[in-house]
Amino acid sequence: MRRPRDGESEDLSKICENQTPGTNRFKSAVRVFFNHLAKCGGSTINAIAKEEYGDDFHTLSPSTETDELKGWLNKDRCFISSEMNHANPDNILALLEDQEIKRIILSRDPAERFISFCGHSTRDRGKNVPGTAFWGL
């Protein structure tokens, strides 16, 4: 631990020790599980988390082995994102057993989410496709 500078409290010294050199960013010691619901802002959250967490950002997929997930969970800091489609039951249990991890789910007004999902999934750029014109795309 670095020693406090003149006029600096010991708490501030601990915070500054955790600062990424040459930036105003701090390495978060928080472990997060983010359940990414489609069309609810999750891609933006993932982009921010990838920048903040770097190599400690992980995507949980159906092919993720439980031992690999437990390795991520044993770290002091990690951000795990997943859409939870076809999730391995052992992985769900591992996430539930971790009492310290922060669990985040972003939701959205159901009607707005439906409109966004349908508009996005029926988009055909450069063509006027009958049946999609009412979305105004």
Describe it.
The protein is of the alpha/beta class and 137 residues long. 36% of the residues lie in helices and 12% in strands. Strands 2-3-1-4 form a four-stranded parallel β-sheet, with helices on one face. The longest helix has 12 residues, at 42-53. The radius of gyration is 20 Å and the shape is globular. It starts with 9 loop residues before the first helix and ends in a 16-residue tail after the last helix.
Q: How many strands, which pairing sense, and closed or not: the largest β-sheet?
A: 4 strands, parallel
Helix/strand order, N-terminal first:
HEHEHEHEH
Name the structural class.
alpha/beta
Q: Low-confidence runs (pLDDT<50, min 5 residues)?
A: 12-16
| Number of helices, where a helix is a run of at least 4 consecutive DSSP H or I residues | 5
In which range does the helix fraction lie? 25-40%
Shape: globular
| Mean pLDDT over the full residue set | 78
- Integer-rounded radius of gyration: 20 Å
Instruction: Report, as a whole number of angstroms, the end-to-end distance.
Output: 56 Å
Neighbour order of strands in the largest sheet: 2-3-1-4
